[in-house]
Each structure stands twice: as structure tokens, then as C-alpha cells.
Here is the input.
Amino acid sequence: MPWTNSSGGNGTGGPKGPWSRGPAPPGGGGPPDIEEILRRGQDRLRRFLPGPGFGTGTLIVAALIVAVIWLLTGIYFVGASEQGIVLRFGQYVNRTGPGMHYHLPWPIETAYTLDVTHQRQINIGYRTAQDTDDATAQEDMPTEANMLTGDENIIDINFTVGWVIRDAGDYLFNVEDPDATIKAVAESAMREVVGRSAFENILTQDRETIQIEVKALMQKTLDGYGAGVTITNVNMQKADPPGEVIAAYRDVQAARADQERMRNEAEGYANKVIPEARGRAARIVQDAEAYRQQVIAEASGQSRRFLSVLAQYRTAPDITRRRIYLETMSGILGTMNKVIVDDSAKGVVPYFQLPSMLNAPRPPAGATATTNLPADLSQGSGQ
Amino acid sequence: MTRTILYLGVAALLAALIAFFSSFYFVNQTEEALVLQFGAPQAVVTEPGLHFKTPLAQNVLFFDKRVLLLDAPTEEVIASDKKRMMVDAFARWRITDPLRFYQSLIDHDTAIMRLTPILSSSVRRVLGSQTFAAMLSGKRAQLMVDIKNAVNQDTAGFGITIVDVRIRHADLPQANSLAIYSRMQKEREREAAEYRAEGDETAQRIRARAAREVTVLTAEATRESEILRGEGDAEKTRILGQAYSQDPEFFAFFRTMQAYQDSLGTGGTTVVLSPSSDFLKYFGKGPGGK
Here is the structure.
């Protein structure tokens, strides 16, 4: 019977349907089969039929006790976050809120409680420790996570879907295995949306849009099934290039950094050499300006000196000429090697030992002749 | 005797009880029931709850009325442009007519067995008429609707409705995936090389501009320097010219004396003098020398 294999509990952390609450009893194959129950009830009833050796009184007391216990089995509690669902002969008759409630005892009515406020989560593309018995923290599921993008690239997406039960009745009665359905719809919706988006955009600006679109698409599909759930959020945990090419993607980031670095280095260089050149240029101009002022000043000094001497020279030209001549000569000749040859020795070829003359001791350096020079000829006196 | 009556009474009671209990049945909230009388379909019960039937003559079959799963295995589909893809589709369906369903598909398990190939072939037919690119576009939603309609058409008369067909995965076969990875890798490598080359270009541009600026700055400074030096030299020439032109003959003498001093006055020079030279006039001829 279809009734018996509802919500197979494939361990996605979702709620268990009322027909498979908790782990199945060993060998029990799940929920009670109604005809089976009926048959057992008939057996049990048969056992209470009057048989030999029982007094009527005892029988009545025993029947009363059994009846009271039977009636008491109709008490049930609905927790703060739960909804109670009451079925009468399998028909959904009532939904109850938190608190203590009573239903007519089995087999007339049965009650199920369902946690409706608890937010449930499905992980797609990876499994956490709580999904599997394996203690390893997180495991990738490449077949779930890798999907094609609109521009025929492959992207590795992990995402979670959060959902709550909106209507316990719809959740229980409208869809076979609602948990697996939600997961299948989530995968399909994500692939549909990713399949029409461009790879680069998924990595960057479209993340938010994709989450919203997937959520809307899932909600629409599930509402079409009457699943009675609300998708509260779709979160992309990871949207990366697949492992096979991630190194190349990282290298692109590195290349961007390299580009920036090369530019910065070049700018650093420019920022160093240009001010230096500016400084050098300023020095060249200043040097030239200094030269200009220097030669002008020197020239005007020389000019003044000449004019001053000229003014005095005019008063006694011959004397001054001779004086200047003699003073200059004494200044110059004082430090020279001198050879005086009489004109009368004209017939004799003067013979000089040039090397010895050249090697003749020179006056010590620094003992310049300036002291012997006339004041009006010595260098620098005009400045 | 009384013992026999008692046994008979008990037997009658038992028979009555069995008749009583087998004359009603529960239809669950998630089910519909088909009542068969001696194997012939008699009635469809859609209302959940407690119902009665004729004991022994009638028996009841139950059918799930929820939205049910139908999962096709992953299959290789060849698109119209000869590209291959691995498609994993699933359908959601429900039993709408229990009688037809019972007549054509018997029960849930048989139905799954019969419907799975129908779903697979519809997937292949619809997707096979499309290019691979159509799968990766807004057209995907329409394709899923097309598959749903195709399956509905093929299962007409089975008493079922396909509520929805969705493609869970549509991926490339492993070999093609590798090709895509390699293409992605090449694209990234190209991109990285481009960034680096652009960085190099920018750096060279900046350095060249800096070098140019340095050269220009130096040249402009040199130009200004030459102008200034020229001005200085001109001014010097003017000043000295003005002064010396007052007595060119004395300037020649004065300046010659200065030049002697500058060029000869530092020693190391040997001169050969005649006692009759002007300087040695008195040396050669005595105080009366003339």
C-alpha cells in the first residue's frame, strides 16, 4: 500500500512523517497496516469472549478496567512548536494547537504531532557530519555541486535550503516523501537558474539574485504540488570554479596583483626621478644665473679698475707706463731662470745645456710672485 | 446437548463478528479506494474515513492520491547539435482515476516500472530535438513543460496525471567536462597573461614618461642656463668694451702686462735676455745708458 511507504526518512534532517516516526522497529517494516491492525483487534476481542471457568463478575470488572484504560489512551500532548493532526478512521478531521488534547481512542481516532515552527535545512553539494554517520566534518558531493552555467562553464556550488512546514495537513497528505521532493526541487531549480546565468556573474554580482530566483522557483513548484511548506531561505555557501581549474583562477588574482604592483613600482620610480631631475634643472639654472652675475660683476670690477688706472695714467702717461712695465717685469722675471747674453758675443754660437737648465731648481711652489707685482696688476684685487 | 448449543452459539457469534469486521474499511486521508465485487470494479471511494462493504463478496483496493515520485535514471541524451549530455529528470504524478489506473497499471510498483521508460523516452525525444545551448538558457523551463506534456500524452488513459517534470541534472559526460575544464583553464591563463602584460605595458609607459620628463626638464634648464650665461657674457663684453675703448693704446699695454703676469709669472720659465734690452738698459750700459 502506498500509505505504508511514505517519507522513507532518507536522513536529511527533516521531520519524519507520521507513518514512520523514529527508527523503524526491527523487522517491522514501518507503520501499522490498517487491515493488519483490524485483524489483530479481532483476535484480541476474541480472547475476551466468555470462556469456561470465568465468573460473570470477574469478567465485567475486567472488561471495565480494560475499557477505562482504552479510553485513557486518547490523551495526547501537543508541544509549543507543534501542531496536532487528528484522523478519524484515517480521515483528517481536526488540527489542534499546543496543549493537552483528547481524541477518541484507537482504532477510531489517531493523533499525530508535527513540529511546524522548527526551521529545517537541506544541504546540497556537500554533507555535514550530521547528515551522515561519518564524523568527518564536511564532504563535497561533486555530482551535486558541479553544474553547467549559461556560458558552458562548470561551477561548483554548495547551497542550503531552509524551510518550514506551513500547513501540517498539506505536508502530511499531499505529497509522497516531501523531504526528498524538496531536495529534488531545490537541485532542479538551482540548475535551471544557474543554467541561464553567466559564470562570472554567478561568482560576483548575481549571487543574491540567484538565491532569490531559486527560492521563488522552488516555492512555485512546491505550491504546485500542494506540499504545504514555505521556503524561508536559499543560501549559496560556496560558488567557486571547480577544483580542477581553481589554481588558474587564483593565478588570475595573482596576475591582477602583479599588474598593480608593476604599475606601483613604475610610479614609485617616476615619483623619484622626476623630482630629482627638477632639482638638477634648478641647479643648472642657478649655476648659470650665478655665472651671469659673476661675469658681470667681474667685468664691471675690471672696467672700474681699468678706468681708475687710466685716469691716473693720463696725468703722467710716460712715468706710469714705465712704472707698470718695470713692476711687471720685476714680478715676472723674479721667478724666472734668466740668461743674459751680450750682443758682443754675436760671433760665438751660444751653447746652452738645455736639459740642465730645465732641471734647474724652481722656486718653491706657493712662493708666488704676486707680492712683487704692482698692486694695480695683481689678480683679484678688483673684486 | 447444551454443550453443543453453546458451541453453535459461539460459532454463530464468531461468524457474525467476522462478518461485522469485514464489512467496513478505512480509507485514509491520503488514499482513494476501489471496491471490487467478485473482482469486478464496483465503485470508487474518494472520501476518507469509515466505509462499509458487503462482506466476502466485495474487496477493496487502495490507491495513493498524493503527488507521487517518479525518478528516471541518469541517461545520455544527444542534442540536435550532436552534443551529448547526461540528464537526470524526475516527474511528479498523481493517480486521478483509480479505476483506469487499476485496469492499465494495476498497482503503484507496476506503474513505476511502466512509467519510467515513458519518462525517459520523452526526455530523450524532447531534448533531442533541441540544441545543447537551449538547455542552458531560459528555454529550459519550456522544455520541462514540453516533456511533461509529452508524458501526459503517452500516458493518456492510464488514469494518471503528470503534475510536473523537472530536470534535476543536465551535465556533460566526463570527457566533455574535462574539455570544458581545459578550456576554462586556458581562458584563465590567457587572462592572467593579459593582466601581467598590461601591467608591464603600464609600467613601461610610466617609466618612459618619467624619462622623457627628466630629459625635457634637464634640456629646458640647460637652455635657460645658456641664455643666462650668454647674457652675462654679453654684459661683460659691453662693460669692458665701454671701459677699454676710452684708451685702446693704454688698454693694449695694460692688458699685455696683465697677460704677461698671468702667463709668465708662475716660474719655471727661462728667458734669454740681451743686456741691451730695454729692461737691462742700465744693466748693460751703466747709469748713463740711454
